[in-house]
Amino acid sequence: MFKKAINQELMRTNNKAQILRCVKAKQVVSKRELTEELGLSTTTVATFIRELEEENLILNSGIARSTGGRRSLLYQLNPDYCYTLGLDLQVDRIVGVLLDFKGDVQAEKEVAFQGRDEWQVVPLLKTFIHDLLATHKIPWAKLGGIGIGVPGVLNNEAEIIDFAPNLGWKNVDLPAMLALDKPVYLENEANAGALGEVEFGLGRNVGHLAYISVGMGIGCGLIIDHRLFSGHLRNAGEFGHMTVEPEGLPCRCGNRGCWEVYASNAAALRMYAEETGNQQITFPEFLLKCHEDDHCATNVLQTVSKYLGLGIASVINGLNPEMVIIGGEIANVKPLIFNSLLKEIKERTLEKSYAGVRLEFSQLGNKAAALGMGTIVLEQIINALT
Ligand SMILES: [Zn+2]
Questions:
Q1: Rounded to the nearest whole angstrom, what is the distance from the C-alpha of residue 240 to the centroid of ligand 1?
Q2: How far is the CA of 265 from the centre of ligand 1 (A)?
Q3: Can you tell me the distance from the alpha carbon of 316 to that of 312, in angstroms, rounded to the nearest whole number?
Q4: Whole-prediction pTM value?
Q5: Which residue in 307, 329, 342 sits closest to 213, CA to CA?
Q6: Biggest alpha carbon distance in the chain?
Q7: Cβ atoms within 10 A of the Cβ of 252, count?
Q8: 138 neighbors 85 (Cβ within 8 angstroms)
C-alpha cells in the first residue's frame, strides 16, 4: 500500500510538471490542447490547471477563437511569477539580461571594467545585479535566481570556478563571494551561449549544434541530441586548446600551438601588433580598420579566419553537427570572412559532414551566454517547483 501511495504521488507530480512544461513550451495553450498533447484525461488537466492557477504559476490569457465548437480558455505562464537574471562575465565587461517567468527579455545591461581581480569584479557584479533589477522596478523578493556565465572551467558541482585563465582566476567561489540570499548558478560561457542560441537564436530545433565562442580565447558549447554535452568532468568543448601548430607559441594552458593562440581576438591583436607595432588597439578598433579596408588589418583578419576555419573543420569532422554558430565580436565582420572561412572548412572536412552542416554567425550580439544563463535559472526554478 505504501509503495502504491508513493507511485500515485509521483504520477501526480509528473502530470503537473508535464502540464507546466507544456504550457511553457507552447506559450499559449488550451485545456483541450493539453489533453491531446499529453494524453491525459480532461479531469486531470482541469484539476492541475486549477492548482497551477491558484499557485500563480499560470494565468488565463484569453479565449481561443471559435471554430464552430465550444470556445476554450487559453493559459500561459504568469510572467510576473518571478524573474531571473542571466549574466555573462566576460574578460572586460558584464553583459546581463532580465527574464520574466515566461522567458521573455524585460531588460538588458552592459558594463565594461578594467581591473580583473576577483575582489574588484565581485562588487561590480553586485551593483550590476541590483541596477538591472531596478531598471525594471523588480523587487528583490521577485528574483528567483541568478545565472553567471564564466570564461573558464568549473568544478564538478558547478559551484566553484576552477580556472579562468583570461581573467587570471583560480579556485574562485563566486557564489560565496557574492553572498546574495538567492541561488547563483554558474556555467561555462560557451555552454551558456549554446543554450542561448537554442532558446533565442538560430539554434532553435537544432539537435546537434556546435557554438564557437570567439573572444580573447575560444570556447565551444556542444549540444548533442538536443542536450548540452558537458563531458565526464564538465570539461568538454575545450577545442580552443586543440593543437594546430605543434611547435607553436605557448598558450596560457601550458601547451603550445593551441587553436585559440591563432584564431582568437587576442591572436588577431598580437598579429596586428607584430605587423604595425601598434599594441594599444582594441578588438573593436581592429574590426573598424578591417571595415575601412586597412591593408594590415585585413591581412591579419584573413590569417585569423584561416585558422578559425581549420579548427572548425576539425570540430565538424569530429562531431558531425547540424549547425555551427560562431559567436563573439568577429560576427560583426561576417561579410569580410564568410567565403574564405567556408572555403577553408570545405577543403578540410569530410564531404558528407560538410554537406550536412550549416555555418552561421550568431545574431544575438554579445547576449547569447547571458540569455542562456537566464534560461538555465528558469529551468532550475521549474525543476524545483515540480
Ligand atoms: Zn591552450
A1: 6
A2: 14
A3: 6
A4: 0.92
A5: 329
A6: 80
A7: 16
A8: no
* Cβ-contact 20, 382 below 8 angstroms: yes
Give yes or no for a contact between 73 and 135, defined as CB atoms under 8 angstroms apart.
Answer: no
Question: Which residue is listed with cell 549544434?
Answer: 209
Higher-confidence residue of 324 and 384: namely 324
Ligand 1 centroid distance, CA of 40 (Å): 52
Enclosing H/E stretch for 212: strand 209-214
Instruction: Please report, rounded to a whole number, the percentage of residues in the chain having pLDDT higher than 70.
Output: 96
Residues in the 5 Å CB sphere of ion ligand 1: 241, 251, 253, 255, 258
Tell me which DSSP letter residue 74 carries: E
Rounded Cα distance, 141 and 87, in Å? 19
Q: 5-9, 196-200, 256-260, 281-285 — which is least confidently predicted? A: 5-9
Query: Residue 332 corresponds to which cell in the numbers above?
Result: 560583426
As a whole number of angstroms, the distance between CA 149 and CA 327 comes to 14
What average pLDDT does range 289-311 have in this prediction?
97
Q: Which bin fits 250, alpha (ψ -120 to 50), beta or left (φ > 0)?
A: beta
Cβ contacts of 347 within 8 Å, gap of 6 or more: 313
Could you tell me if 164 and 149 are in contact, meaning their C-beta atoms sit under 8 angstroms apart?
no
pLDDT digit string, tens, across residues 64-113? 775 666 678 999 999 999 999 999 999 889 999 999 999 999 999 999 99
Which domains, ranges and CATH numbers included, belong to the chain?
Answer: 2-77 (1.10.10.10), 83-193+368-385 (3.30.420.40), 202-361 (3.30.420.40)
Separation between Cα atoms, residue 64 and residue 223, nearest integer Å: 35
The distance of Cα 198 from the centroid of its chain, to the nearest Å, equals 8
307 contacts 263 by C-beta, under 8 angstroms: yes
* Average pLDDT score over the chain: 93
Residue 218 CA, ligand 1 centroid: distance in Å? 10
